[in-house]
Specification:
Layout lengths: L14 E4 L2 E6 L4 E4 L2 H16 L7 E9 L2 E10 L5 E7 L8 H14 L3 E5 L4 E7 L4 E5 L11
Parallel strand pairs: 6-7
Antiparallel strand pairs: 1-2, 2-3, 4-5, 5-6, 7-8, 8-9
């Protein structure tokens, strides 16, 4: 299955096969996982965060399980602060999936549990970045993913 070019810098991915299925090494989970279109986006996006935006790999976690209204849900990626508190939730979709209000609502629901300052949704072609101001209760959408050093400003 050919994977599309994304609106992200190219990432050097370690690809393999398992049981006739393509796999990719996820450096954050330290294991090979099935290569799906969504995983293609995740691996490029996390590489972008680490290599181009200065995000520490040790503070990023993929497939974080949480309880949302009694149901186990998995956040695609969570960025933690140095205090080990969640700071950002990132949700990925396959490139052909439009980033609709319904998609954004998914990450918003995760935030009812995590209460982070930053929400990101990306299909690799389009990325929505939202900053929540906890003090004022307001939020704003930003044109690009912030540098890691600018997150606490």
């Amino acid at each position: 299955m050919p994977y599309p070019n994304l609106n992200l810098p190219a990432a050097e991915l370690r690809l393999s096969q398992s049981g006739g299925q393509p796999t990719v090494l996820d450096p954050l989970r330290r294991r090979y996982v099935r290569l799906t279109p969504e995983e293609w986006v995740r691996q490029h996006f996390t590489a972008f965060l680490i290599q181009h935006k200065g995000y520490p790999a040790g503070l990023l976690a993929n497939e974080v399980t949480l309880d949302v209204n009694g149901l186990a849900r998995r956040c695609d990626t969570v960025l933690y602060g140095h205090d080990r508190q969640p700071l950002m939730v990132i949700e990925y979709k396959a490139p052909q999936v439009a980033l609709t209000q319904r998609v954004f609502d998914q990450v918003w629901r995760y935030n009812t549990v995590l209460r982070v300052e930053w929400l990101i949704v990306s299909n690799g072609l389009q990325t929505i970045v939202c900053h929540l101001d906890k003090e004022t209760g307001t939020y704003e959408f930003l044109p690009e993913v912030p540098e890691y050093d600018g997150l606490r400003a």
